[in-house]
Structure formats: structure tokens, C-alpha cells
Write a sequence for this structure.
């Protein structure tokens, strides 16, 4: 072995622990990166499932509101249970009513049918969501037949384990 070869081999021997340590660090970094990617994918999938679940819950609550109007007499008690104490509503006529006023209005109306169309749920905060939709309906108001379509928006807030309507607004579609 020449002196040049001996020098190269001695440097390899001296640097071998550092090279091995560097390789270990690269392997560790790759493992950490794979774990981070796996956690990110898992979190993203979990968030997507949560969003889908929330959309279903909010749509179900909105449907319960409209169902409470169907029949020979609206179910004012069921309707009231879906609202926060500080609930407010802007009627299609532009009138602002509170929870008790909105419940009292039910005495004049009955729906024979309704259909929620194109619902879109937007999460505003972890405990607040907005649903906007078109609602087709048929029924009576003060004994007069009515049918039409309204553009509807409701803000739902989570209180304890329940989603309750805090604000609602409707606009008649022309």
C-alpha cells in the first residue's frame, strides 16, 4: 500500500464514525418526515370527515325547523326548542322578530310541504355555522293558500351538545 493510499484509508477510518452518524441522522430525518406527512394526511382526512359530519348536523337541524311547520298545526314547542333564547329573525317582509314573536307567528301558518334545495353550510367558528339554501314550500297563511320559494339563511351555534338557531333571515324569491 502506498503512502497516499494509507493516508486516504486513515482519513476514512478517522471520519467513519462521523459518516455513520450523518447517515443515521439522515435516516432519522426521513423517518420523522414520513411520520409528519402521515399525521398531516390523517389530520386532513379527519378534518374533512368532521366538516361532512357538521354539514349533515346543521342540515338536519334546519330540516327540523321546517318540519315543525308541517301539518294542520305547527309544532311551536318543537320549533322553540331549536332556538337560542336570544334568537332573532328578519322576516321576508323586513320585520325583525324575537324568539317569542316568531313562535307566536306560527299560529297563522301551516305548511303542507317544503323542500330544502342547494344547502350550503359554512363554518364560521368551531361552535358557529351558517346554512344558506332555497326552500320551496306550500301551505296556508291566515287560511289563504300560499306557495313559493324563499332564500333562507340561518346561523347555528353550539350550546352544550346541541346546535341551536340564533339568527334566521328569509327573502322571497321573485
Amino acid at each position: 500500500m502506498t503512502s497516499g493510499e494509507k493516508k486516504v484509508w486513515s482519513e476514512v477510518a478517522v471520519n467513519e464514525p462521523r459518516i455513520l452518524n450523518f447517515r443515521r441522522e439522515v435516516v432519522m430525518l426521513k423517518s420523522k418526515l414520513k411520520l409528519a406527512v402521515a399525521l398531516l394526511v390523517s389530520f386532513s382526512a379527519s378534518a374533512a370527515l368532521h366538516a361532512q359530519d357538521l354539514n349533515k348536523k346543521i342540515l338536519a337541524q334546519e330540516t327540523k325547523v321546517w318540519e315543525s311547520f308541517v301539518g294542520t298545526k305547527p309544532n311551536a314547542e318543537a320549533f322553540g326548542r331549536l332556538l337560542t333564547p336570544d334568537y332573532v329573525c328578519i322576516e321576508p317582509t323586513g320585520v325583525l322578530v324575537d324568539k317569542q314573536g316568531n313562535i307566536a307567528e306560527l299560529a297563522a301558518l301551516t305548511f303542507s310541504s317544503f323542500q330544502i334545495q342547494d344547502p350550503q353550510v359554512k363554518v364560521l367558528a368551531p361552535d358557529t355555522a351558517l346554512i344558506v339554501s332555497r326552500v320551496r314550500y306550500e301551505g296556508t297563511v291566515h287560511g289563504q293558500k300560499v306557495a313559493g320559494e324563499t332564500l333562507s339563511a340561518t346561523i347555528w351555534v353550539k350550546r352544550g351538545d346541541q346546535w341551536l338557531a340564533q339568527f334566521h333571515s328569509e327573502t322571497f324569491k321573485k
User: Anything to note?
Assistant: The chain has one domain: 45-172. Residues 3-67 form the longest helix (65 residues). Strands lie at 83-90, 96-98, 109-125, 128-141, 144-159, 162-172. The domain at 45-172 is CATH 3.10.450.50 (Nuclear Transport Factor 2; Chain: A,).
